[in-house]
Design brief:
Blueprint lengths: L4 H12 L11 E5 L42 H9 L14 H7 E3 L21 H19 L1 H10 L1 E5 L2 H8 L6 H4 L2 H21 L4 E5 L8 H5 L8 H24 L4 E5 L2 H9 L8 E5 L1 E2 L14 E2 L6 E3 L7 H14 L24
Length: about 375
C-alpha cells in the first residue's frame, strides 16, 4: 500500500519549473498500480482487479465507477490539478489518440501490477511494469508516425516519467504463500531479485528517452486494513513495514547510481513513508476518526477485498483514511497531497496554484 504518488507528481513538477525555450507541451507518462490506475483495468475484461462496480467513484463526477480504486480522486489527480498539469488518460481509454497523447501523455497504470511479471497472477489479467513499458514502446511508434522521428525524440525526452509500483510485489506476491516467490526466496534474496529487475526496467526506459524520471518509495503497507486483519492483534504488520523501508533504501541507492551513470538525465527518488505513517498512526490529528478499517466493506465480513454493490458504507467517508482494504479515500488522498506540497514548499504566494475542488460528497446508499 502506498500513498506516495503525490510526492512523485510534486517532484516531477519541480523538475519542470524553469524550463526555457521549450515550444512543446510537457506531459507525463505514468507507470503504476491500482493507486494510480485511472481506468485501464476496466477495459481488461478478464481481470479480477476491478474498480468497475459501485461504490467506486461515488464522490467523483457523476458518481459512477471510472476505474479509480477509490471513492473520488487519486493523489495524482489532486496534485496534477493544483499544478495545472493535464491528467494523462488511461492507455486503454477508447478516446485516446495521437492528439490526446501529445496534449496529455498516457497513464499505463494497472491494478494488481508489479515490478515482477509474476506478481498479482491470481488477478488473471493486469499490466506488469514490463508490459507497461512494452505498451509505451507502441505509443512511441504511434507518435513517430504522426510527427516524425526528430520531433518525437524531442517530445519524449522533454516528458516527465513516473514509476510508481512495488507494493503488490510484496502484498500480492512475496508475502502470500500461494506464490512460489514466497518460498523460493528469503527477504534478502527476494529484495535483490526485485531491485535487479527494477534496475533493468529503468535502464530500458532511459534507452527509450526517459531523461527526467522519478521512482517512488513504498508507504507503510503493513498498516493497510488488509494487512491488519491478517494479524491476531489488529495492529500493523511490522514485517511488511520493514520490507517497505528496506525497499525504499535500496531504490534510493539505485536511483542515485543511475543518475551518476546517465549524466544526461535527471533521476529522483520520492519517499513519503513518514508522512503516511503519521496519518495512519494519528488520525485524529488530521481530522479522521478511523485509520484501521475500510469505509466500504461487506458488512462484518473481513477481509472484504473489494467494494461491491452489496457492500455497506461508513456514515461519513471524509472521516475514514481507507476506502477499501487496500486504498485510501478521497479525503486521505487530499490530505496526503496537501501535506506533501507543504513539506516540499512547492506552492507559495507568488506561484499561487488554483486548488483542486473536492467533489461534493454523495450520501451513503443507506442514508
Amino acid at each position: 500500500m502506498d500513498f506516495n504518488l503525490a510526492l512523485v507528481i510534486v517532484v516531477t513538477t519541480i523538475l519542470g519549473i524553469g524550463l526555457e525555450g521549450c515550444d512543446s507541451k510537457i506531459v507525463q507518462f505514468i507507470f503504476g498500480d491500482s493507486l494510480s490506475d485511472v481506468g485501464n483495468n476496466m477495459h481488461l475484461s478478464r481481470s479480477l482487479a476491478q474498480a468497475s462496480l459501485p461504490w467506486y467513484g461515488i464522490d467523483m463526477g457523476n458518481g459512477l465507477p471510472n476505474g479509480r480504486f477509490t471513492n473520488g480522486r487519486t493523489v495524482a489527480d489532486i496534485i496534477g490539478d493544483k499544478m495545472g498539469l493535464p491528467r494523462p488518460p488511461a492507455f486503454l481509454d477508447p478516446s485516446i489518440s495521437e492528439k490526446v497523447i501529445l496534449e496529455n501523455g498516457v497513464n499505463y497504470a494497472s491494478g494488481g501490477g508489479g515490478i515482477l511479471n509474476e506478481t498479482g497472477a491470481y488477478f488473471i489479467q493486469k499490466f506488469s511494469l514490463d508490459k507497461q513499458i512494452e505498451l509505451f514502446q507502441g505509443t512511441q511508434d504511434l507518435i513517430r508516425a504522426k510527427i516524425g522521428k526528430r520531433a518525437a525524440v524531442k517530445f519524449f525526452q522533454e516528458a516527465r516519467y513516473v514509476v510508481a509500483l512495488g507494493s503488490n510485489d510484496f502484498i500480492n506476491n512475496y508475502l502470500m504463500p500461494v506464490y512460489t516467490d514466497s518460498w523460493t526466496y528469503n527477504d534478502e534474496t527476494f529484495m535483490d531479485y526485485l531491485i535487479g529487475t527494477l534496475q533493468r526496467q529503468l535502464k530500458l526506459l532511459h534507452d527509450l528517452g526517459a531523461k527526467q524520471l522519478v521512482v517512488f518509495g513504498l508507504g507503510p503497507m503493513g498498516c493497510i486494513p488488509l494487512q491488519r486483519v491478517l494479524t491476531t492483534t489488529g495492529n500493523c504488520r511490522e514485517k511488511a513495514n520493514k520490507l517497505a523501508l528496506t525497499f525504499n533504501e535500496a531504490v534510493s541507492k539505485l536511483v542515485d547510481e543511475l543518475e551518476k551513470q546517465f549524466p544526461d538525465s535527471i533521476y529522483r527518488f520520492g519517499d513519503a513513508y513518514d508522512v503516511v505513517y503519521d496519518v495512519i498512526s494519528n488520525p485524529n490529528k488530521y481530522g479522521f476518526q478511523n485509520s484501521n478499517s475500510p469505509c466500504c466493506s461487506f458488512w462484518n465480513i473481513r477481509p472484504a477485498l473489494t467494494c461491491v454493490p452489496a457492500s455497506s458504507l461508513c456514515k461519513d467517508r471524509s472521516k475514514y483514511v481507507f476506502w477499501d482494504e487496500y486504498h485510501p479515500t478521497d479525503s486521505a488522498n487530499e490530505l496526503i497531497a496537501n501535506e506533501l506540497i507543504k513539506k516540499f514548499g512547492l506552492l507559495n504566494a507568488d506561484q499561487g496554484g488554483a486548488p483542486s475542488p473536492a467533489p461534493a460528497v454523495a450520501p451513503s446508499p443507506e442514508d
